[in-house]
Amino acid sequence: MNLAPLLTYAYVHCDGRYEEHTPMANYTSFHIGGPADLLVMPESLKEIRDLMTLGREMKVPVTIIGNGSNLLVRDGGIRGVVIKLGNALTQMQADGEHITADCGVSLAALSNFAAREGLTGLEFAVGIPGSVGGAVLMNAGAYDGDMSKVVESASVLLPDGSIAEVKKDEFDFSYRHSSIQDHPGVILRVVFCLKQGDKAAIQAKMDDFMNRRRTKQPLELPSAGSMFKRPPGYFAAALIDEAGLRGYRVGDAQVSEKHTGFVVNRGHATAKDVLQLIKDVQDKVYAFKGVRLEPEVRIIGEA
Ligand SMILES: Cc1cc2nc3c(=O)[nH]c(=O)nc-3n(C[C@H](O)[C@H](O)[C@H](O)COP(=O)(O)OP(=O)(O)OC[C@H]3O[C@@H](n4cnc5c(N)ncnc54)[C@H](O)[C@@H]3O)c2cc1C
């Protein structure tokens, strides 16, 4: 694999915004993950496109990440180039009942912006620590809301370098799923369709959601949020609790004592610890209830 052209590009165009052999632990909310060969934080569509084109031409694998809040990166790290989009590309604007937001906008910033504009529909997103791009890809949701209910369309950079306007229906949204998971593309910008609402009521709803999170979720420890998807007819956290796994630990990876749907990093957990814990939880819950839990967290990188 010849990374040199990508490295040269980063050196020339992305001064101070690229790192070599950087631990992905620094870029994930889990604080876990081996080194990426090269990580670049592009600031413009042109840079994203150039990096994708160079990756394709040089046959260098390209991995897109946002805020890294739904990722478990294996201990061997990521070969090729990681393009990190959260923290840059953060423009947003309102027009009537529509908000257009770049992929790097955080969901907290987006929902607070909507609240200031007196627009309702995005309150559910206020405590989800992801970026707009990652949230649309995951159809992130909470408290009966999710992205599928508010996304109208998005601009998506396709692998051939063209940009497609993808309409809501084409995202084929379902629980924590969108079509972009199956047909790779970079979500660049998203148009949300909201409704006029009462500013005080919107703020009160957001405060309530934040309070519920602080009370129920282990926000004081690194994690990637809910480790498992909700199996039809059950709640993953309840199944894990009933199987006696509250506080279950492999190394420094632990089923949270506070919320059994979360796996937390107690200090120096490795991806190997977390993967073993996932397997143990899956096996024990299956033996106990006959339900197979599937990870919601996306597992990437080399062992
Ligand atoms: C404490 C905590 C609480 C959480 N609560 C919730 C919750 O209530 N509901 C919920 O749904 N999730 C929750 N999560 C999980 C996570 O925040 C969401 O899945 C979030 O939407 C992920 O966004 P991200 O930017 O961090 O994506 P990342 O984790 O960086 O990436 C996730 C996936 O999206 C892809 N991706 C990222 N950006 C783009 C882009 N621009 N274009 C194409 N692909 C992209 C990546 O390749 C990867 O496959 C929680 C996580 C934590 C740590």
Give an overview in words.
It is a single chain. The radius of gyration is 19 Å and the shape is globular. The protein starts with a helix and ends with a strand. α3 packs antiparallel against α5. The protein has 303 residues and is α+β, with helices and mostly antiparallel strands. The protein is built from seven helices and 19 strands. Helices cover 28% and strands 26% of the residues. Strands 6-7-13-11-12 form a five-stranded antiparallel sheet, with helices on one face. Residues 29, 64-71, 85-86, 103, 128-131, 133-135, 137-138, 140-142, 180, 186-187, 217, 219, 223-225, 298 line the site of flavin-adenine dinucleotide.
The small-molecule ligands in this entry are: flavin-adenine dinucleotide
Please state the average pLDDT score: 97
Class derived from helix and strand content: alpha+beta
Gyration radius over CA: 19 Å
DSSP summary, beta strand count: 19
Order of helices and strands: HEEHEEEEEHEHEEEEEEHEHEEEHE
Q: Approximately how much beta-strand content do the residues carry?
A: 25-35%
Overall outline = globular
Q: How can the largest sheet be summarized?
A: 5 strands, antiparallel
Poorly predicted ranges? none
How many helical elements?
7
Distance between the termini: 18 Å
Side-by-side strand order of the widest sheet? 6-7-13-11-12
Helical percentage: 25-40%
